[in-house]
Structures are given as C-alpha cells and as structure tokens.
Design goal:
The structure holds 2 protein chains of 2 kinds.
Chain A (H helix, E strand, L loop, with lengths): L12 H6 L10 E3 L4 H4 L4 E3 L3 E5 L6 H7 L2 H5 L4 E4 L6 H6 L7 E4 L6 H9 L4 E4 L7 H14 L2 E6 L11 E12 L3 E12 L8 E5 L8 E2 L1
Parallel strand pairs in A: 3-7, 3-8, 4-5, 4-6, 6-7
Antiparallel strand pairs in A: 1-2, 8-9, 9-10, 10-11
Chain B lengths: L2 E6 L11 H16 L4 E4 L2 E5 L1 H7 L2 H16 L4 E6 H11 L8 H7 L8 H9 L5 H6 L2 H7 L2 H10 L14 H13 L13 H17 L5 E5 L5 H4 E5 L24 E12 L20 E4 L4 E15 L6 E10 L4 E7 L2 E7 L2
Antiparallel strand pairs in B: 1-3, 1-4, 2-3, 5-6, 7-8, 7-12, 8-9, 9-10, 10-11, 11-12
Classes of the chains: A alpha/beta, B alpha+beta.
Chain lengths: 219, 359
C-alpha cells in the first residue's frame, strides 16, 4: 500500500543516544539581567530573535535597550551599539554592561543596515537605532540574517518611526515618571511587554530604570 | 643625575626554565615598591629606585640599605649586593662592588673605572694600545676623533664616558616590563573577565574580525570602544577611542569629591548644544558668581526657537577646576521638562549648554 502506512522500524539503542539535540535549550537563549528575568518568558533572549523597544525620544528607550545587554555582557558575550550618536558611557557601565566587550558605531553615515549586518557575525547582541524609518526590505534582510546567525537584534524605535515588521518581543514604554529629591533620583517606567508564543499574554510592568545606582530594578 | 639605589641579586639574573625567576622578580618588585613606589626592575636581577625620598623617610642611606637588604632576604631568601650611585651605570657598578657613592663623587668614580666596564672589548683593547686605560681618559678624547676610529656605537659609550648619558641601552631588558605586566595581569584578571586587549577567546576573535570589516567600510574613526576614567561629571569620565588604538588606562577607583552621583545621562553629547534658559517673565537665567541662579528657570530655548517648559530643576552644582592656572568654571543643572524628558545642562562662560539626555 502506501509507504507511510508501514510500521516504522525500532531505532537501535546506540543510535538513539546520538540523536540527542546537539544544542541545549539554555544555549539558545542569552541571559537577561535585573528585573527582566522575571518579566520576559524563559528569562532570556532567544538567539535569532528580534526585540523592538518602542519609546518616544528621551523617555527611557535607550536605557531599556542597554539594560537588556547587562546579563549577557556580564557572562562574556559581545555586544554592539549602532546608531546611538553619543552614548553616555558612565550610564552604560552603571547598567552593568562590560565596556570591554561593547563596540560603538555612533554615526554609521546612512549605512546603518550594512553596519549592523557586518557586526552580526562578530557580536551576540546588537542594538540598532535606525536614523529614520527603516525600510521594509532592509528590516527583512537584517532580521533574516539575525535568525541565521543566532544573534539577538534589539531595535530602538519611536512611535513616529516604527519598525516595519512584527518582532518576537516588543517593549512598549507607555509612561515615564521621574522621582526627584535634591537631584534626579530614579525613573519609574511603565513597560508593556508583548510578543509571540508565551510572550503573547503580555502585561504591563513598572520597572525602576535607572535607580539611584544607575541600574535597572523591579519596583 | 639622580642618585639611585641599585639592588643586584645574582641568583635572579639567570632565568630558570620553570618561570620561578619571573615570579620571584614580580614578588620582590611588589615588596620593594612598598619601600619606594618608584622602584623599577631594569633587567632580571637588577632593581633600582631613587634614594632621596626613602633616605629622608628612613633617616639615612644606611637605613635604606638595611631595610632593602631585609626585604630581599625576607621575600626571596637571597642576599643582595647593594650600592648607591648617580645614574644607572654607576649605580649598577656600585652595587656589584657594594659601594655607597656619596653625592657628587660618582663622576670621579666613573672616570677612574677601567674601560672594560663599558662592555665593548674592541674599544677597550684599541684604547689600551693607545695608552687610554680609564673611562675618564676615553671621555677626554674629542668626539670627532672617536667617530673617526670607531663606529656610531662607540659614540654612545663616549657620551656615557663624558657623563652626557647616565646609562647604556644594554643595561635594560626592554621586554621585561611587558612580561611582568602580563604575569601580573594573569594574577589579577580572572577567567571570565578577559577583556578586549587582554587574553582572548574565539568570541573576541570574531568581534575583532567584524570590527575590522566595519572599519574598512566606514573609516578608521567609525568603531569606538569605551572606558571610564576619573572625573566629576559624566562628560569627563567617559573616554571613547577608536577601536584598535592603545588601551586607555584602567578606571581609577579614587574618590572624586563632588562627583555627580548616578543615574548618569545615557546620552552625553560630544558636541554640546547651546541652549537658553528663561524664567517665568521670559528673562534670561544666568549663573551668579557665588554659584546661584539669578531666578528659577521656567523654559528651555533651543537655538531653533524650540521652546520647552521646565517643570523642575536641581542644582546648580558649581565646579571650579584648576583655579591655580587658567581656571575653568562650570556649573551643572538637571532639568525636567514638561514632556517627561530629563536633561543635564552646563553653564560655562555665562552661556548654557545641553550636555546630557537621560534617555
């Protein structure tokens, strides 16, 4: 009769032992730091995924993106930041990012997508802030490349210039409130996290970013 | 020339194959740095440090030598030969002969030495045949006469004999400092923390290749690496250097009184933007000489006539740096705009600049 209706032969024992998955699930995710471990499904960023941070300019988007690096950076992974013009190095260090393993490409001169694609081969996490609205094609090519390389792409988008494609994980900053004393003390960010799969449940969370030590903290 | 204490340890001068010599050298260097922070290791087995400071501290040259001898004995178990002389050349010979040359006597000592100490057999033999037996007599020769007869290396010896230079290049081991730094670095830096310019793994190689490619695409200044240095304000504490340039000095953990505490702005503008501060009556807000604001600011004006309301401000924190020379007076101010953005402003020479954004 049909080929598929025949009973499958038993797989020998010694062959079974070699059929274990080569990559463990935990190797497929990059660790997160601070409050994100409990807020993001599996507590990590899946390799090959694209994360979009949506925030109006100046309201904490960069802080959120940088704080997503901290866990992996402390574990020895390399990161790159493309298109963030004048990174505040002190704040980056305060957030727990190891400066020795971060490459900054502040002004990619219109070649942000190509720069990002070049860096994908070398780093495990990549923050990109497109200087203008990213084109559909450029975004598609970059995301394909990310999936193929097993990197994590973190896109900084604004409501005026959204990322044109659906992402695996999205952080929307809906509210930003500073706590002040005789100086700026801490900022309470309301973040809505949504995405595919387990992340689709979503939910709004308030995180303190930065707190008095410049770090991210659950509120 | 500076008077130096030279510490000569014969046992450490020949490197053992198991690396024990290098480890002992490092341990001894660290111990001697307690006696004098300017101790340097010239080559294996030879350490020098200036005698002036320690001598004043311990109360005499003899006391310094006593303390040094005890330190070497405690750390390595060897008895060193110690000597004091002006300049590295004299100091080394004084140490090997165990002499203390009083201030001002090193010149005569050097002149009286036989030519063999210069370490060049051909020069010594030729000069001896010419009736020149001491370094002093060699130095008295005219420079042109020496250049006629010998090559340019002899001119270096001649300069030393005349007292124009204090040491010979052959005395120093150029690579030793680097090797010791590597050895020291291995002790300090753990497995996980291997950095950009330290020891490297496969991930570091990959990142380097990617950075190379990007640099070819965008130019040498395109890829930057960051490090922290000392300073009071975020714009002073950060150093962004092109990738591949020499490593910046490590972040000093010294306290900086008056440092602006965290949180720091996530964007620090390398080229500050000039802004204007206005009060409720649309008058300019200025810094007074005592470090106060003339009035409370109510609005922030960018040069493009973009006007933003200020809802809160903190500071100003005045800072007068290097007042003993051309002083730099600055004052920092944190402002919170009605839109929710927080900014760091600086007043300098009666103008306001935007230096940081808390994004």
């Amino acid at each position: 009769m049909f080929a598929f209706s025949t009973k499958r032969p038993e797989i020998p024992e010694e062959l079974l032992t070699t059929l274990r998955p080569v990559t463990l699930a935990k190797n497929k995710t990059l660790p997160l730091g601070g409050p994100w471990t409990s807020l993001v499904p599996h507590g990590g960023l899946r390799r090959g995924s694209t994360v979009v941070v949506n925030a109006p300019q100046g309201l904490g988007g960069l802080s959120v993106a940088l704080s997503l690096l901290s866990g992996a950076s402390a574990k020895g992974h390399w990161a790159a930041v493309v298109g963030v013009d004048d990174p505040g190095v002190v704040a980056v260090a305060d957030l727990g990012v190891d400066l020795r393993r971060v490459l900054f490409v502040p002004r990619p001169r219109g070649a942000w997508a190509e720069s990002a694609a070049d860096l994908l081969d070398g780093v495990d996490l990549l923050i990109v802030r497109p200087p203008s609205k990213a084109s559909h094609g450029a975004a598609r090519r970059l995301m394909d490349r990310v999936r193929e390389r097993g990197t994590v792409l973190i896109v900084l988008a604004e409501p005026g210039a959204p990322w044109p494609l659906p992402s695996d994980l999205t952080f929307d900053i809906t509210q930003s409130q500073w706590a002040t004393s005789s100086r700026l003390d801490a900022r309470y960010l309301t973040v809505r996290i949504r995405g595919r799969g387990e992340a689709s449940r979503g939910g709004e969370h308030v995180v303190v970013l930065p707190n008095r030590r410049g770090q991210a903290e659950a509120s | 020339m500076e008077r130096l204490v030279a510490v000569w340890i014969e046992e450490l001068s020949v490197e053992a194959p198991d690396g024990a010599t290098l480890r002992d050298t490092l341990r001894l260097l660290e111990a001697l740095e307690v006696l004098c922070p300017f101790t340097e290791v010239v080559r294996l087995g030879l350490f020098v440090f200036p005698v002036r400071g320690p001598s004043r501290f311990f109360g005499g040259d003899d006391e310094v030598l006593k303390a040094t001898r005890q330190t070497v004995l405690d750390v390595t178990g060897y008895t060193p030969s110690l000597g004091i002389g002006e300049g590295l050349f004299c100091a080394e010979i004084a140490a090997k002969k165990q002499l203390i040359l009083e201030a001002g006597t090193s010149e005569a000592f050097r002149r009286s030495l036989p030519l063999d100490y210069l370490g060049r057999k051909d020069v010594a033999t030729t000069c001896r045949r010419l009736g020149i037996h001491t370094i002093g007599a060699f130095g008295d020769l005219k420079r042109a006469r020496v250049a006629e007869r010998f090559n340019k290396h002899a001119l270096v010896l001649h300069a030393l004999a005349r007292g124009e230079t204090a040491e010979l290049r052959e005395q120093r081991d150029q690579k030793l400092k680097l090797r010791l730094a590597q050895l020291r670095g291995d002790h300090v830096v753990g497995e996980e923390q291997m950095g950009f310019f330290g020891q490297r793994g496969a991930a570091d190689e990959r990142a380097e290749v990617a950075a190379h490619r990007l640099r070819r695409r965008l130019g040498p200044e395109a890829v930057l690496v960051a490090s922290l240095c000392g300073g009071r304000f975020p714009e002073d504490r950060a150093t962004l250097v092109p990738w591949g340039s020499p490593p910046a000095p490590r972040a000093p953990e010294a306290p900086w009184p008056g440092q602006l505490r965290s949180p720091s702005p996530t964007t620090t503008l390398t080229q500050p933007v000039e802004v204007q501060l206005r009060d409720a009556g649309d008058q300019k807000v200025t810094m007074l000489s005592r470090g106060f604001l003339s009035t409370d600011p109510a609005a922030l004006l960018f040069s493009s006539q973009l006007r933003r309301e200020i809802v809160w401000h903190a500071g100003p924190w005045p800072l007068i740096e290097k007042w003993w020379q051309a002083g730099r007076k600055r004052a920092h101010l944190q402002v919170l705009l009605a839109s929710g953005e927080a900014l760091l402003l600086v007043a300098e020479s009666s103008r306001w600049w935007l230096v940081g954004i808390y994004d």
